[in-house]
Design brief:
heterodimer, A: two-stranded antiparallel ribbon, B: 5-stranded parallel beta sheet, 25 helices
Chain lengths: ~400, ~600
């Protein structure tokens, strides 16, 4: 057998291109058959004689089959000769998928239009990557959901049919909790300390940043609601039918009108006395030393990915308001990241300051990746002395609450 | 232990505060800083967990001491090697080489990835099977192998055998990703016939391709006889996105290789029309090709390229400069003579003695720049960002009520130049030295300078105010925009002193043209103090009197170019020039 094959091999190699040229109509499978039959023996032959030059390997055979599959493929696609840029973009995405680049599998018409409108190549690539990651996350979530459903089914089967037991409460915890929080919210609306979110930054933000801001606002409101002693939240400068308003209403749904906050189109200076307002901004030259319970703190609801430094400081300067920043440098060994915190981190810090008054407690909400630990107070002796001279409040620096990971000098 | 640790802490400080260390003759400085860097990286973790052991602290002390002596040596050296001027190519690199080096080399390590011993000869399918069995890893085997082949530029035949094996397993079908990487190998090896084969396959199998494959095909085809198909591929690309300048470069090079000048020029026009900046290689190709043809139209196009370089302030590379020289010298009958020279401080070319264009802006440009600075840098759509309207008004009336100044000083920048000295003392020293030369001075500062403190002594500030006009902005206002405006407002003779490169203010300007104007003005008017003045007389970095830009007088060209071995930052200008001149008038016919 082997002998005959070896004998046939040179002929087979000659035959394949020959056959191909002569009979173009020959079907894909026959070519493949012949091609394979020509290839396998050649390899076995090569094994026996490993010193033979590489020319003996069948290297170009695959090209024939690749080219021969013209007909099935080409016929199907050539029919829609649509020179539209949308279609071309869709094809480009398909080809990028074949290269396993970060592009989504499915893309809607709307997304495709957004993509075509992107001005630069990098913008396109970024948008595609965003869609890709979104798709991935969604997929993962669905898989997880399916697994959970299965697990629940299994658990239900295992559970024994319970007999009668005595309970004190019906299981309506969520409902109870919500109504209790609602009560607390109403209390805060009447007697709570105001906390203002200044919404006047919508024209400084891109749509994606605005979406992020709205997410952060939602989360802030949630943290506030769950707190022991909530703030009375004001959304100032919130213009009806602005992008902000629309996004908020869309996210809250019908809950928006029942929310225990005050949303107003007015500016904070119209609502509150000017001398009571403190505008919080990371660019402020003044450091916040204590939380004052008789002041109205204003937080700019502004996600700034564009590094427009000093926007909120300029705003406060224009309105002639007092400004303050958090004492991050005083308490934390700052590593990376900018000092702008997210809105929910801000409100958690402020809530903590309101309820406990301890900076060490409150600054726990600063992301751990941004700093490498708490500073020892004695580390900046001159600094502290200067502060003491100014504020004369020794008690505001409780000693002995040193973090274990403190950086020793 | 505390001493050692404080020594250790001072390392980053040492790097930060001594960016002016010049590149001394001590070649060992680089590895030295490397070791320090490694040590600090390791120690950081170490220190935070437990106290150091004595040997380590000793080593650290040694290193600290060594660093100090090194610094001293560099200090003494820097008097000898002085820069030609503040914005000269490579000057910033010299200024910052200490701060840069450790970071660069520390992070340059490539990420560790699973690697395969790549075969050096074509394998048959059994051998591939075996190799695949031996391979352990999550990645797709074929994909990984061919990626590594592409990286290490393996032989084309080896890759081909891989593809044949894949096709054999997979009904004769080879995936697009493998095909593209194979194409990359073929293109990088210059195997035109293979490129054409792959091109045929791709054309057959796929209706359209993506940018990566198009780019490779264009590059591969432009050298072959079928280079016109590269142009078709370029058209295909344009349907979805603008082709890159490299794509245009390949097409133009292909057209020039096949003597089709018209196509090359129209592609060039298209490229510039997309507001892409052409690769210097593209322009060089035009000059290289121009040597063989004597055509007036072609040469006028080449001169247009030189003017394009001028308007966009591009500088040719060294080899490009050689091409330009060769082309000029090849023009028949004109007798151009080229030489590589430098420009003297007086602004005269060392080669021909002609004076280079002045750095000063024309009156229209000057007015334009002044207005743009006022509107974009100081105002910027929101006056409260950098200052307040009240302060702006106060400043304007201050500037307008006084006659023009000769020198505007950035008080805080000057005062903080020497970390060891008292700030007000340094400022006073600078001001009084300048005042002795009967110059009208303006010192810009912030209000906190007037409040007496350990750094700012009241009597010294009073003396400063006696010798110079002073304007103190609010503590949260920016003083640089005021510096720029006061200088511009005083007129063309006025200079300003700061070490700041003012890049953030340049970035506030709306378009590239204004930014270039600003840079030109900055080169001509910024005085930077040379270090070491406390011990001696006040000296400044040399100011350019001429503009570094491609320029002509009709029968001469002066073209600055980048040397291959000098790394130039965007805010620096080249120092080497190509001087071209006609040795004799065109021969009378």
């Amino acid at each position: 057998m082997n002998v005959t094959v070896c004998f046939l091999r040179p002929f087979a190699r000659l035959l394949v291109p020959f056959l191909f040229h002569r009979k173009r109509r020959v079907s894909h499978s026959t070519i493949l058959q012949r091609y394979m039959s020509s290839k396998v023996p050649s390899l076995s032959c090569h094994n026996k004689d490993s010193t033979s030059p590489p020319e003996q390997l069948e290297l170009d055979g695959w090209k024939t089959t690749m080219k021969s599959s013209i007909h099935e493929d080409a016929v199907s696609v050539v029919s829609d000769k649509d020179e539209d840029s949308l279609a071309a973009t869709r094809e480009l995405i398909e080809m990028w998928r074949l290269l396993s680049k970060d592009v989504p599998e499915h893309i809607t018409e709307e997304e495709l239009k957004t993509l075509v409108e992107c001005t630069s190549k990098s913008a396109k690539r970024k948008y595609l990557k965003y869609l890709y990651l979104k798709e991935k996350a969604k997929e993962a979530k669905q898989i997880k959901k399916a697994m959970k459903a299965e697990a629940r089914k299994a658990r239900l089967v295992e559970m024994p049919a319970g007999g009668q037991q005595d309970f004190m409460f019906l299981r309506l915890w969520e409902l109870r909790k919500n109504s209790a929080l609602g009560w607390k919210g109403v209390q805060a609306m009447q007697f709570g300390q105001p906390l203002v979110f200044d919404m006047a930054y919508d024209n400084y933000m891109k749509p994606s940043e605005l979406q992020n801001t709205v997410s952060q606002l939602l989360e802030s409101e949630g943290w506030n609601r769950k707190s022991v002693d909530p703030f009375h939240i004001y959304f100032c400068n919130l213009k009806i039918d602005s992008a902000y308003h629309r996004a908020l209403v869309k996210r809250y749904g019908e809950k928006w009108d029942k929310l225990l906050i005050t949303a107003t189109e007015k500016s904070p200076i119209d609502v509150f006395p000017k001398d009571k307002i403190i505008y919080l901004t990371a660019d402020s030259p003044n450091v916040m030393t204590t939380f004052k319970h008789d002041k109205m703190y204003v937080i700019g609801s502004f996600v700034d990915k564009n590094m427009q430094t000093g926007t909120s400081l300029a705003k406060a300067k224009r309105l002639n308001l007092a400004t303050e920043r958090l004492p991050l440098d005083k308490y934390l060994q700052w590593d990376i990241g900018n000092k702008n915190l997210t809105l929910d981190q801000m409100i958690r810090i402020l809530l903590c300051m309101k309820n406990t008054g301890s900076w060490e407690e409150a600054l726990k909400f600063v992301p751990k990746r941004k700093h490498s630990g708490y500073l020892e107070i004695s580390q900046h002796p001159q600094d502290i002395l200067r502060k003491l001279k100014k504020t004369k409040t020794l008690s505001s620096f409780p000693k002995g609450s040193l973090n274990a990971r403190t950086w020793k000098k | 232990m505390t001493f050692c640790l404080s020594g250790f802490r001072s390392f980053p400080k040492l790097w930060k505060t001594s960016p002016y260390l010049e590149l001394g003759p001590v070649t060992s400085s680089v590895p030295f800083f490397l070791t320090v860097y490694c040590v600090t990286r390791n120690q950081q973790r170490w220190f935070s967990v437990k106290p150091t052991s004595p040997p380590d602290s000793k080593a650290m002390n040694l290193l600290v001491a060594k660093a100090r002596t090194l610094k001293k040596r560099n200090d003494s050296n820097k008097q000898i090697s002085s820069d030609p001027h503040y914005f000269a190519a490579g000057a910033a690199k010299k200024r910052s080489h200490v701060t840069k080096n450790p970071q660069d080399s520390g992070h340059a390590l490539p990420p560790v990835r699973s690697t395969i011993q790549l075969p050096t000869r074509p394998l048959n399918s059994k051998e591939w099977d075996k190799l695949k069995e031996d391979f352990e890893g999550k990645a797709n085997f074929e994909d990984l192998v061919i990626s590594q082949m592409a990286q290490s530029c393996s032989c084309v035949d080896v890759a081909k055998s891989l593809l044949a094996w894949v096709a054999g397993k997979n009904n004769g079908i080879v995936g697009y990703n493998l095909l593209v990487k194979y194409l990359y190998l073929c293109v990088s090896h210059g195997q035109t016939s293979e490129v054409i084969d792959v091109y045929e396959i791709m054309k057959a199998r796929y209706k359209s391709l993506e940018s990566g494959a198009y780019t490779l095909l264009i590059r591969g085809l432009s050298h072959s006889d079928r280079w016109r198909e590269a142009l078709l591929l370029l058209e295909d690309m344009k349907k979805v996105m603008t082709p890159s300048r490299k794509n245009y470069d390949d097409c133009i090079q292909g057209a020039l290789l096949h003597q089709d000048v018209t196509v090359a020029w129209s592609l060039y026009q298209e490229l510039v029309g997309h507001s892409l900046i052409p690769l210097l290689d593209t322009l060089k190709a035009f000059f290289d090709f121009g040597k063989d043809i004597a055509d007036d139209h072609y040469s006028s196009n080449l001169l247009d390229i030189l003017l394009y370089l001028r308007t966009n302030q591009l500088y040719p590379g060294e080899s490009f400069a050689h091409s330009i020289k060769a082309w000029f010298e090849s023009i028949p009958g004109r007798q151009w003579k080229g030489q590589f020279t430098t420009i003297q401080k007086s602004g005269q070319c060392s080669g021909c003695g002609r004076t280079i264009e002045s750095i000063h802006l024309s009156p229209e440009e000057y007015e334009f720049l002044k207005e743009k600075i006022m509107r974009n840098v100081i105002d910027g759509g929101d006056q409260y960002k950098k200052t307040t309207p009240q302060e702006l008004k106060r400043f304007e009336s201050f500037v307008n009520s006084r006659p023009p100044f000769d020198i505007v000083i950035d008080g805080l920048n000057v005062a903080k130049m020497f970390p060891k000295g008292r700030e007000s003392q340094i400022l006073l020293a600078v001001v009084s030295q300048l005042a002795q030369q009967n110059l009208r001075l303006l010192v810009l500062g912030r209000k906190h300078m007037l409040r007496p403190s350990s750094q700012w002594r009241k009597d010294e500030m009073e003396q400063v105010q006696k010798q110079a006009h002073c304007f103190f902005a609010d503590n949260i206002s920016q003083d640089d925009p005021f510096l720029l405006y006061a200088t511009l407002n005083s007129g063309n003779h006025c200079k300003f002193i700061t070490k700041d490169l003012l890049r953030d203010h340049k970035a506030c300007l709306p378009d590239a043209r204004t930014q270039r104007l600003f840079f030109k003005w900055q080169q001509g008017h910024q005085l930077a103090i040379v270090k070491g003045f406390l011990r001696s007389k006040l000296t400044f970095q040399h100011i350019l009197s001429y503009d570094t830009v491609v320029q002509t007088t009709g029968d001469s060209w002066h073209i600055p170019y980048d040397e291959d071995l000098v790394q130039r930052y965007s805010y620096e200008v080249p120092t080497k020039w190509l001087c071209l001149q006609r040795t004799q008038a065109p021969a009378p016919c």
